[in-house]
Amino acid sequence: MNNQNILGYQPQDSFIHRINASAKLFFFLVVSIACMTTFDTRFLLFVALFSVALFKTAHLKWQQVSFIVKFIIFFSLLNLIAVFIFQPTYGAQLYHSKDVLLSAGYFTVTAQELFYLANVALKYFCTVPLALLFLLTTDPSSFASSLNKIGISYKISYAVALALRYIPDIQTAYWNISAAQQARGNELSKKASLMTRLKGMVNIIVPLIFSSLERINTISTAMQLRRFGSKKKRTWYTQQPFTKTDFCVVALAICLFLTTLYLFKLNHGRFYNPFN
């Protein structure tokens, strides 16, 4: 299986890869919180474009993220459809006006509702690229040290690092098993029907989960034998000092967060209302 198709850390020499893991984690958390709390379309659009631009700067391959992006888009669309079905008049109530675009009784489409749904969709474009960027450009050990640096127990930090390291291994094992099954005549590609592919996926995933649990038990036993967790603190081989660039990243995150606070005051709330 080509490594470009595996969702996991891929070492490269890019600007994003060289940023300190703690600075990247801080930026991701602060900007995500800012985007989740505001509904100012101008701010969300700026962050969405900025996130996509950062994603391109990291020189990441589409093959690495295509599956997860399609998966997120699918469930995002389901979420938007569900929001509209359960309360198609929410946008009109929210923006205190109603411009009907399509009259269809309960499912009447208004400009306000579409505007609200567009804001919800923008939130995905703001946070998903940042999350993928952080996961794909941050070494798991550096990520663990960054978690420990912000006060999280090193035991939990190390568990997260192991999980991130194990995700590519699981993906590789799945694709290897899938290729072996197809070599034996069990069609699991796009040529097969959806039900056949789902059945084949289940037949691979279930034993893969049990084998993974066995490997986890082996790793935990090995760590106990090496007295992991016997001390209250530990040092990190991959921990890096902050540079000027890292401080600039932290400062940018703070500025974006303060911008949302200013917009709260400007808009008299979380929502930007262009219909007034």
UniProtKB/TrEMBL annotation:
Membrane topology reported for the UniProt record: Multi-pass membrane protein
Assigned GO CC terms: plasma membrane
Keywords of this protein's UniProt record, alphabetized? Membrane, Transmembrane, Transmembrane helix
Query: What is the designated name of this protein?
Result: ABC-type cobalt transport system, permease component CbiQ related transporter
Localization, per the record, is: Membrane
Name the source organism.
Ligilactobacillus apodemi DSM 16634 = JCM 16172
Q: Which domain of life is it from?
A: Bacteria
Q: What is the protein's major site of localization?
A: membrane
- Matches recorded under Pfam families: CbiQ
Q: Where are the transmembrane segments?
A: 25-55, 67-86, 114-135, 147-167, 246-264
